TrEMBL record:
Pfam families: Aldo_ket_red. The keyword Oxidoreductase applies. Keywords: Oxidoreductase. It comes from Potamilus streckersoni. CDD domains: AKR_AKR9C1. GO terms for cellular component: cytosol. Belongs to the aldo/keto reductase family. Aldo/keto reductase 2 subfamily. Residues 21-342 form the NADP-dependent oxidoreductase domain. This is NADP-dependent oxidoreductase domain-containing protein. InterPro entries: AKR_Detox_Biosynth, NAD(P)_OxRdtase_dom_sf, NADP_OxRdtase_dom. GO terms for molecular function: oxidoreductase activity. The keyword Transmembrane does not apply.
Amino acid sequence: MAVNGSISYNYLGASGLKVSNICLGTMTFGILKGSYPVFESKTQLDEAKAIKVMDRYAELGGNFLDTANIYAGGKSEEIVGNWLQKQKRDKFVVATKCRFQIDPNDLNKGGLSRRHIIQSVEESLARLKTNYIDLMQAHMWDNGTPIAETLRTFDDLVRCGKIRYYGFSNVCGWQLQKIVDFSESHGLNRPISLQQQYSLLCRQSEWEEFMVCKNEGLGVLPWSPLKSGYLTGKFKRGTKPDKAQSRIGFYNDDDKRAKQGGLSWDDYAANDAYWDLIDKMGKIAASHGKSIPQVAIRWLLQQDVVASVIIGATSVKQLEDNMGASTGWELTKEEMATLDTASPRLSCYPYDMIWRGNGPDRFNQFNRSIKI
């Protein structure tokens, strides 16, 4: 793992591409009224503030930026593109995404069809002001398009140089295995990454999706590592988050929207296990002279399947604190075990039975990526 001052670098999956182990997510860049409510949040950044965050990220050695065509209706990509114009493009790895319905009045402006992927790539290239995208990601599975069409399109785009690599996001285990198997059996370029929600409060993907990643050589890019703020330690029992100061407070102005996003304050406010986890994180943080968010991110970085953790920053100060998790210190085995035990991971069939039946005595380090 190469180290450059404040940050470390990892290979992204089984590719030869190296990325900083902290990726700057840009969903907070750009303000858009009348669209997805999240982009009206008080924590969204205008272009001037977003550029300051990117400048500092680059100063600290970060080289990996993640955006999407749907973020603030394309404004996020535009802001990143304007910033890239003043940088040495080859120093940075730029990732974006497509899949969601961009224009409700155009039936073909959504999904993972050949037409929409190619159109999305062309539009993203224009907004990003670049002639190639380092990592193009499918934002979610599309039941309306055969996976063969999607994968052949990504392969064509790699071959013609419009994108360098591709990955997927927000998929389940059987979908990810199908993606890998089809691309390999048909001689196509394989995906190199999976961007998935992953944190001490969201561990479901450990059961299946991450097992596919380990076996098939895909690097995991956790999004929402602080669970939209629940793992920052800044909230107190009995005090409702302020909508002007946090995304959680903003979401909980509309309880329906909050529950859909898994962000409802009511789900955590009276949950003793949640407060116990925060307490343990606080003690571990204090023992290292670190912050609670740094502990949350460090826990992810020490998972062997994780290539880079995607952080969102609404200020330079927040960015600097999160970047402090990158290198120069580690959680001990005992501290990792404490957090593993304190964080929720639902036990359900057949996963619990599979994991019990494949304990340490049945682990074969050479039995990885073996093709039958």
